[in-house]
Amino acid sequence: MLVQYGTTPSGYTFYVGDTLRLGRGSLPNDEFRYVHEPVGLSGGSFRPVSAYWQGKVVSVLRLTDGMSGGQWQGQLMAEFRLGTFKLGYASLDAAIAAGEVVPTSRQRRPPPAPTPVPTEATPARLGVADELLKLKALLDAGAITRAEYDKQKARLLSE
């Protein structure tokens, strides 16, 4: 089914009209594993795009949510023009993972939210620990005396 925009399972979003930069082919001969062109005029079979297209920028003509049947079923596919007459097709998620398509900053997925680290210490106690570390560094550097360090340490620990 044709769509105006789509998001890959890994979170990249593409729109019709977007530009794609083709990266490096992932096959041993530098051809593309996930970027294909039709063979012949019927378009019934496909072959890997040649290494010639590495680094080229193409424009998305159509997006589909996968070809019916086969290995690309259920995947976001982009159709684009290679030169004047040839069309190319890319399974976007697989091509991005292999470095064959390099998404722009607009297409990139947002960075994952940081995972909170569980801790038993409260924020106030973390502040005390930080202050103790600073005091120890001052003591080690000779900026304060042992007596000053002990006095400040006792004050912080009593809070």
Say how many strands there are. Answer: 10
SSE succession: EEEEEEEEEHEHH
Query: How many domain regions?
Result: 2
Please give the largest β-sheet.
8 strands, antiparallel
Helix content: 10-25%
Mean pLDDT: 80
From the spread of the alpha carbons, the general shape counts as elongated
Short note summarizing the structure:
The protein has 159 residues and is α+β, with helices and mostly antiparallel strands.
Description of the molecule:
Helix content is 24%, strand content 27%. The chain is α+β, with helices and mostly antiparallel strands. A hairpin with a 3-residue loop joins strand 8 and strand 9 (86-91). It is built from 3 helices and 10 strands. The model has no long low-confidence stretch (mean pLDDT 80).
Using brief descriptors, characterize the structure shown.
159 residues, alpha+beta, elongated, eight-stranded antiparallel sheet
